Request: fold
Amino acid sequence: MSKTLIAERVAEIKEKLRELAPDRRVSLMAVTKYRTREEALAAVAAGVDILGENRIQEAVQKWGDEKPSVALHMIGHVQTNKVKYGINLFDSFDSVDSDRLAEMLNHRASGLVRVMIEVNVGRETSKSGLMPEETLPFLASFERWPKLQVTGLMTVLPARQENSVEESRRIRRHMQEMVDLWRMCRSEGFPWAPMTELSMGMTGDWEWAVEAGSTIIRLGTFLFGPRL
Reply:
């Protein structure tokens, strides 16, 4: 997609965000998996707030020489043996869901590292993330990892199977469950967990997510078009 079309898409989303959430800030993350550096930089120039990468090796190839001017988040599954390659590249690791990964991030960090806990709110066997009931105990355990700061929760919502009223209600229930869980975690007041962010909502459901209370939406296909 051309730079002009990317800019138009970003402007369209930004305007819609102002309509849906006039009294609060919602950050727009451009998901740049399999996208070129030029496409990603076009999105940055157009005004996206964050870039999200799914694979450490791809991100290193794309950004290893010069990081983008906006925050770079790791949103895909992270293998612990790859942490050393990304620890100084990413501004946030948004898919932390195990003691092992948290331990490795803490071990490799030279300073404070921002992370988010990934929650599998739909309880889907094909997806990573903690079950909702596991999230608060895991958050409480971060006292063990003094170099990690938990800024919030991230989830990949179940895909809509059909355009029915019941299916819409199901997705919205999952969204509300995430909002309630996020608020509960924040209310604990752990010093290592400001919990200011809820990363929820993608191309097919981002408007509902913003209405529910999401603070970060993650868009790829809408901004860049289908991958060739």
In short: The beta strands are 27-31, 50-53, 71-74, 92-96, 113-119, 148-155, 197-199, 216-219. The chain has one domain: 3-221. Residues 3-221 form a domain with the TIM Barrel fold (CATH 3.20.20.10). Residues 117 and 176 are 17 Å apart (CA to CA).
